[in-house]
Amino acid sequence: MNRWVIGALRTVLVLALLGSVFVQAVMIPLAAADLRGEGGELTRLWFPLVAIAFCLVVVLQVCAVCVWRLLTMVRRGTVFTPASFRFVDAIIVAIAVGAGLFFALGFVLAPGEEVAPGMVLLIGGAGGVVAGIALIVLVMRMLLAQAVARDAEARAMQAELDEVI
């Protein structure tokens, strides 16, 4: 992979991580204060909403760190090794947890009159989309496993060929 592409992606990851820390440190507490002081039905839900928002940001941070580690492996030429599986597995688990958090958000917001049923349906749909992304990454992991197996097979054949020659 081109080193400029890796550098650009790392820049995006750093900006995303800094933005996510800002959201966790400033935006979520401000939103929590607004929810607590509003006095509507959402007041009783301030803690689950804040916890879900915080956990969703953590999911994004885990994915960003794992992508960073995979980019490091790409730069070193070691991405087609079994060591890369743990980062891909972490991404799959994080995305699946994110899907569960979207479903939990829909479950928390469903009862009552404050949130329109269409909005709850949209949140549930977003959870389904995120779960689909986890499945896509799972398929990509299987392709990575096949590539690692083929690479090991090719190395073994090359070693045998070198012995014959």
TrEMBL record:
Coiled coil: none annotated. Keywords: Membrane, Transmembrane, Transmembrane helix. Pfam families: DUF2975. The keyword Transmembrane helix applies. The chain crosses the membrane at residues 12-33, 45-71, 83-109, 115-140. InterPro entries: DUF2975. This is DUF2975 domain-containing protein. It comes from Nocardioides massiliensis.
